[in-house]
Amino acid sequence: MKTGEDSFICAECPCDFCDPERGCMDCGKGEYRDNPKSDGPPVCLKCPCNDNEEACMKDEYNMVLCSCKMGYSGINCENELAQRTHLGIKMTPTNVISKEAGSLVIFNCSYNSTETMTIEFERKYGNQQKDSNQKLSHIPGLFRVLTYGKHSSAEIAIDEDLVSVDCVLRDSQSTERARTSALIMGTVTNLVIPQIKNCYNEPKYVNVNEDLELICEASGSPVPDAKWYIIENENYKYVDTVEGVHVVTKAQLDQNGTIYMCIARNSIGDDKCSTHIIVKERCLMTVSPPYLEVEEGEDVQFDCATVNRKSVMWKKQGGFLSYRANDSNGELTIKNVSISDAGQYECSLVDPSEPVTKTATLVVHLKKIPPTAVIKQGDSTLRPGDTLRINCIVSGQPKPNVTWSKIGEIFLPTNVEVDERDHSITIKDANKINNGIYECTAESAIGKSTSRIHLKVSALPRIRIEPKSVTANVGEMVVVNCLVVEGESVNTTWSRISDSPFEKNIATGKELRFQSISSSDAGKFECKATNPYGHAVEVVEVMVRQLPSVKINPDGPLSAFVGEIHDFYCNVTGSPTPRISWTLSGKQGTKPLPGTGNSVRVVVTEDMGKVTCLAENEAGTGTKSVDIIIKDEGKGSSAKYKRAPIGSRVEMIFDELNDPFNCTRSQSSLIGDECYIKNGLEIQSVQVQHNGTYICKTASGQEMSYFLQVVGFVNKFSRLNGSYIILPITLKSTKTLSVEVTFKTESTRGLILMKRKHCDFVMYLLNGRLVVKLNQIDSTNGRRKVSKVIHLKSTKLLKINVWYTVVLELRDSVELYIHDEHGTIVDSQYMTLIPNMTWTTNNEGDFFIGGGTGEKRLPLPPKDAYFDGCISRLIVDGHEYKITEEAKYSRNVTLCNVCSDNIDPCGDEGVCLDAPTQYGYICVCGKNANYCPESCMGIGCRSSHDMCSLLKPCHQQESKCVSLTSSLQCQCPAGFEGHTCETELLYEFSFDGNGYAKLPHRYLPRHSIKNPEVITIEFTQGSDTGLLLFQGDRNNFLLMFVDNDDFTYVYKNQEVVLELTADIKTMSKNSVTIRRMNNTVEISVGDSLFEEKKSEFRTNRVHGDIFIGGISPTTDFPIKYNSEGFKGCIHSLVFGSDDERVNIMANDITRHKLGKTCEAQVARRYDTYEDDD
């Protein structure tokens, strides 16, 4: 038994059943259990049986039952039986514990006596409804009792409420002589009487010499034992049964009618079921024919016969017999069979006891019908490009194979499509290859059928012009023929492409004839051939060679002073259009003049002699010249001319002036940024105000002049150079657009403006007309789809070398306006749009200006994808773009020099100057001008135009622009100088020991101690000691000073003091760099690291303005160090690592006694050393 968690001791069990942990689970002899078993260990009480018991127990009704010893009786064994003779009785087992319901137990009872006794068994129940004493003959479920001599045994089923089994001895007078009991301990339940589940209700049939299984399935509790018996004369004869199955092997006719019974028995009862077998002879059946193939419409017959001519019947597997079928005496006939009659037919005996069947197969083929092919359409004539569908109606059985062919050819033409579903063909885009006979052929194993159709395709006219091109001289006869190569009923006519009329007698039918060709006959002519099926056009260009005729204006000798500017105009006629060039002849020979237009501007010089206009074409050359006569203006007078782009450097050299000279500009003093150089003047950065005549004179009266013209501001594009600009533009909306662009074209074709992505917006010139292309896009489903392409085209031709402004407004509609340079609308277009559409899918993107880059969607051929001319202004959605400054990319774009090209646009209104205006120039009027048009600017115009706001000539933001007569002046901020404030003042300054400069603390912001602090200072000493730099106060400071040959750096931050010293050169320029981080300070002289120290700075308390070269008297300076001012030159001071020097003059807060040159101080330092020696 268990004594702890893991310890046991062994002891003898004083009862029948012990639990290892809980001990005795039964009571001992002479005791009974007073509590239920489910309560755990027993509570044992003494048996109330007067000590005469074999055993006792308590039943479910709380009654104690006594099993008395031999010789005692009564409920409590209180009666002692009289002893006649010695009589002993013994019964085993004495008790039965917890047997399952239905369990069989064998009880043995024996006695010893000289008398002969009868042994009986009785069962006692605790249920009051049952007899308390049931004798052997009344015990249900008793299987057998065996008695031999003085011993008897009984096999008894333990059923519900059984509490004991008694063994009783009776003498010959049936008097009870002795009794003993076996106690049944524990209640038994769930007894079920057997029941056979598959009892046969009809005979079982079997053929002779075949086996037959008889199956008996039964249920019950306990599980019943099922066995088969043969009943013969009311006797049961057991037959072999295995798990309820008996097999009748090789049944014979003499077994016919044998009765078989199944008995299923358990301990509480049994169930019976019987059947009989019928043994039959085997029936032989034949079906003829077993397989039959026929065609639709034939009659078929199947015969079914048996040996003994038993009754049979026919049926169709998976269906019913046709109404055309007849089943009679085993003969099945089907009249006029159809496809639905095909299948398996089954013949079987009418007697269900004999399951004999035979099958026959019927295969029905479709009735063979010769194929037919019919094309109902008649022969047809097509026009080129037509589509025709031809149907072929096909029948036949079996289904024929259908093919199409064209007689005389192996394959059908490539534009013929065959539809095998309905045996049709479709001819698409008919042409001459479709002429011919087409066959539809239907063919099967039993025949062939063909149907034909003849097609004819009338040819479009096709023509050829001979000769293909014509070039003739004036007066020659020219004949051009228009030959018809193909086509019927063709009519030919000639017309001129330009729509200009020509003499009717020139064109006669197929011939274009010029008896005596003239230059007016030149042009392109087209021959148009037509017939009922279409038309064809061919073009020929007739070129007439005519020598150029040249007229020049002025047409006579021109008298002019040196330095004057004159324009020459050349009027040229000729065919083809002549190419114009200009030359200038003089003492230096002949040289070409810039420009290829019909005008040229010339500045008169003393060596000029002749200006010539040269016109050339294929017919020859024509020239016209103007002689230039130089007027004598006096002694030593000569003039030169120079053009310079804005911002460039210009030198004006006067080699002829031998003596010192003084110069003026336009009869006034120089602007101020012109510098005298040897034999001339120099301007570092030319601006618009430098335009004018510069006159230089010597004391002896020798004089020379220079006319300087500044050009620039406007972008010029060239088709030859493939120039263009890419400008990033952000749009306000993808549904609206506003564009304003100003341009001057030198060609009739070219791209002006284009949105790069998908070419959704394109503005270009085509044959002299302005065209705008816009896409309307549907992107509602997330996919880009162009719903409509809009083209707006000007009705009037735009002139070459004339400024135009184009305004495009896209809202619910699109409007286009074209203005000339006077603001007059010369053309307008209007078109409605599809509502709720966008014209692009992206607000941001690149716009191409003046040219494209091979975009495939561009509506121009590659040669016309570039613009020839000038584009001065672009405004998109209200924003005016600075094309050059905001460009993302620029290629081969030059400057458009408006005032020097062709005709002077100002004329007598003023002096023309290139400027960043809408048309690329302004007219500057003199102070005494009597008349000032609106386009003029300047003091003399008395107009509201502000030249300073327009031209913005001053470089620095703090500069102030002042308008003077025909010029501008810039007032520069500190640190800058020059006429346009373009020159930054010197970085270096001299110190005399009493001066200093104070810089704002932003140069040493010290946002974080971790950020490196780099200071580089270049200086030359002028004395032994001196303060170079100081920031902070006496407690926290940064200090740099020199002491003879030593440079000292001191950094004090709270309690940490770091001091470094480096050697320097006394009579040379020194460059010292200090690099301080939070834990390291380095000092370098030149390129060499001189000293390095380590320290740790947690915070930075050094702040305030930075003193250079000295300190003010009120500075809180540490008394430990010398505060004497620096004498010498500080050349440069750099804070940070970007090498950007500090402009002290432009950035200081306070300057005190500073000099602008270092040479004097350095020289005094050298002198000092000499004195010391």
From TrEMBL:
CDD domains according to UniProt: EGF_CA, LamG
Gene3D superfamilies: 2.60.120.200, Immunoglobulins, Laminin
Cysteine disulfide partners in this protein: C972-C981
GO cellular component term, pick one: plasma membrane
SUPFAM superfamilies on file: Concanavalin A-like lectins/glucanases, Immunoglobulin
Residue ranges occupied by any Laminin G domain in the UniProt entry: 714-899, 986-1158
Span of domain EGF-like: 944-982
Domain Ig-like per the UniProt entry, residue ranges: 194-363, 371-458, 461-545, 548-629
GO biological process: axon guidance; dendrite self-avoidance; homophilic cell adhesion via plasma membrane adhesion molecules
Keywords: Disulfide bond, EGF-like domain, Immunoglobulin domain
GO MF annotations in UniProt: cell-cell adhesion mediator activity
PANTHER family: BASIGIN RELATED, ROUNDABOUT HOMOLOG 4
Protein name, per record: Basement membrane-specific heparan sulfate proteoglycan core protein
Source organism phylogeny: Eukaryota, Metazoa, Ecdysozoa, Arthropoda, Hexapoda
